[in-house]
Specification:
alpha+beta; single chain; PsdUridine_synth_cat_dom_sf; globular; tRNA processing; Pseudouridylate synthase; isomerase; Pus3-like; 14 strands
Length: 666
């Protein structure tokens, strides 16, 4: 007997006469409209539907034979699964006479199958499914991939099942599975675990990368070693087989010697799968594989073997649209031209980041990791002008838009904050840039960097806004040659204890050289770079599309700024200046923010210290403090179990976000 409850439960997602999920027919274009709560409901309905096997055909029951972990399914796969179940429901809701006709056809087919051997073979041929990929026929190898992506349209690098936007890892997974470079049992579940996977950096939502690196074991064209004949229990038979094998080997060598052109040995690059080209055909155009490494050092890990990460944060000069001098308030005139940054002061402040420092006041604290060591080594920190860009706005050269001291050349100019370090904390770069912008606007002195780095005197971070994420780029990752001791060492930090993969206090080489021998696209075949589907050809299309947008926006802005004559003042009594006490403050992003009187950082509300944040998180799960929690064996598993219990009981998650506190009198 069918279970009507299963049909009724699944129908909750349907509008009458319409498809599941969106009140209409599902399609790829509708996937982006799915909210997190709706996706969670769909996952629940899928599990409920899978519990009613009497409703499903034999093929459908095979699909749910093993319980699927829908929490790890990407959004597209969930929608595809819902559509499959819709089709199953439609088939079961057909008229009784059609069902009887199907059963009659099945009986006739069964009779035909059992009639003769020829009919049996014909029926089996019809039922024969497409041959599945057999991973046992292929060897595998551990390789590294160096790739770039524009992160504006992605929810960061790391896969998150509940995210509204796709992640870079999700796109990589789909390309690797579709190309059969990896062959998971459940292709719809994103799980890199079995493939010796490692990643160098975990960029956040909107952040780009030009030198991201992963390590992964993939399918290879290298021939599998020939299997030796099995030995029997009889010694005489074994001797005979061995003599026969020796004679066969001699005959083979003799035959090979008579051949003028012998087959060359397998080449690890020329005969290998063109990994970069294969993946680039399947990846979105804003994710490109640039190089791969066939030979990796022992115990290679993209995360822990990396000893230097380079970031660049791009910004313009002026940072935002300046006002004509005739419209500026007196306050702005005394503090310099609004919109223009003091690059020399920013560079002076940036140099103070170099060396080993405690950066707890330049990051966002994640209590789930219980980090206690915030020391990081910065090899280099500077402000650099980009010389090879041209997108002038001629109106900025007019005297009323220039700063008092004037400026050289055409504008706007483009600069970037260049930083090289061993490792970085969560949102560290964006916090560093935010403070540099305050220095560049004359709102804070360069010495504010030293004050924030003095955590003994200032253990709590002032409440300030970090810079926008889009201009930030993970520029490169450096893998220097490691000693045998370093390569074989047990790497700390894998448990998330906040330690770096090497001691930041230790003296190290600040001018590291990458030791990985990368095979860049174009080095194997130049046409893979400049051909019809070459890397440069594809990236040119991406660049030109965005360049046309920039040119049109540039010309429109310059046209609008030059056309009106603001001295005409056609409306009598119209305000010729912004309200008093209102100041533009640049905090990153595309525009300045209108603020009142600027409040210096250390006169603002202070956030909870790192110790207080960690303790509050632990107390939310019933521990006395963070120390007691971290001493508990497998405390992360305990936290997960308590989270599950809280969800079932309707309780909210434990606190742990950076919480404002009052400054202590001491």
């Amino acid at each position: 007997m069918n279970s009507p409850g299963s049909i009724r439960t699944l129908s909750h997602l349907k509008a009458p006469g319409k498809a599941i999920g969106v009140g209409g027919t599902l399609s790829r274009s509708s996937i982006g409209n799915f909210t997190t709560s709706k996706l969670n409901r769909i996952k629940f309905q899928l599990r409920t539907f899978a519990k009613g096997p009497t409703l499903l055909s034999q093929e459908a029951r095979k699909m749910v034979h093993k319980p699927a972990n829908y929490d790890r399914w990407p959004k597209e796969s969930l929608v595809k699964r819902v559509m499959e179940l819709e089709e199953e429901l439609k088939r079961r809701e057909q008229a009784p006479e059609i069902q009887r006709q199907e059963r009659a056809e099945e009986r006739a087919l069964a009779a035909a199958v059992t009639s003769t051997e020829a009919d049996l073979k014909a029926a089996e041929k019809k039922k024969k499914k497409a041959a599945k990929f057999d991973p046992g026929k292929y060897s595998t190898r551990l390789i590294a991939l160096k790739f770039a992506y524009l992160g504006k349209n992605y929810n960061g690098f790391e896969y998150q099942s509940s995210a509204k936007m796709p992640s870079i890892e999700e796109e990589l997974w789909k390309a690797l599975v579709k190309s059969c470079l990896i062959f998971p049992e459940r292709p719809d579940e994103v799980d890199f675990g079995p493939w010796e996977y490692s990643k160098c950096g975990r960029t956040d939502r909107g952040v780009s990368a030009f030198g991201q690196v992963i390590g992964i074991r993939v399918r290879s064209n290298k021939p599998l070693p020939k299997e030796e004949p099995e030995q029997t229990g009889n010694e005489e038979d074994n001797v005979v087989m061995a003599e026969a094998a020796q004679q066969q080997a001699k005959d083979s060598e003799k035959a090979a010697a008579e051949v003028d052109h012998q087959k060359p040995e397998w080449d690890p690059i020329a005969d290998e799968i063109p990994y970069c080209r294969v993946l680039n055909r399947l990846l979105p155009p804003d994710i490109r594989i640039m190089a791969w490494a066939p030979d990796l050092p022992p115990n290679f890990s993209a995360r822990f073997s990396c000893r230097e990460r380079q970031y660049r944060y791009f910004f313009t000069q002026p940072a935002f649209a300046p006002m004509p001098s005739t419209l500026e308030p007196p306050l702005a005139k005394s503090g310099g031209k609004q919109g223009w940054l003091d690059i020399d002061m920013m560079r002076k402040a940036a140099k103070m980041f170099e060396g080993v420092h405690d950066f707890r006041n330049f990051c966002k604290i994640d209590p789930g990791k219980q980090i206690t060591n915030f020391s990081r080594r910065i090899f280099e920190s500077d402000i650099v002008e980009v010389k090879d860009l041209e997108s002038d706005l001629p109106y900025l050269g007019l005297p009323e838009f220039q700063p008092p001291a004037g400026s050289d050349g055409s504008h706007p100019k483009v600069y970037y904050f260049h930083v090289r370090g061993s490792a970085f904390l969560w949102h560290q770069i964006r916090h560093m840039v935010a403070v540099l912008f305050l220095v560049g606007q004359g709102l804070e002195p360069p010495s504010i960097v030293q004050q924030l780095l003095d955590v003994e005197k200032n253990p709590r971070k002032p409440n300030y806004v970090m810079a926008d994420e889009v201009p930030l780029v993970l520029w490169d990752c450096i893998f220097p040659k490691l000693s045998d001791e370093e390569a074989n060492a047990v790497v700390p930090g894998s448990s998330g204890d906040g330690k770096d993969s090497h001691d930041p206090e230790a003296e190290g080489d600040v001018e590291m050289v990458d030791s990985i021998d990368w095979v860049w696209m174009g080095e194997d075949d130049p046409m893979s770079l400049y051909g019809a589907q070459g890397l440069v050809t594809e990236l040119w299309g991406t660049w030109r599309e965005r360049k046309m947008d920039e040119i049109l926006a540039n010309r429109l802005l310059n046209f609008v700024a030059n056309k009106p004559d603001i001295d005409r003042k056609l409306i009598k009594g119209a305000s010729s200046a912004p309200p008093k006490g209102i100041k533009k403050v640049y905090e990153g992003g595309n525009k300045a923010q209108f603020r009142g009187t600027y409040t210096p950082l250390f006169k603002r509300q202070l956030l909870a210290s790192a110790e207080e944040v960690n303790d509050k998180y632990a107390q939310g799960f019933g521990f006395k403090n963070a120390e007691e929690m971290t001493k508990t064996k497998n405390w992360r598993s305990t936290i997960r179990e308590r989270k599950d219990k809280n969800k079932k009981g309707g309780r909210s998650k434990a606190g742990g976000a950076e919480t404002p506190v009052r400054e202590s009198s001491s």
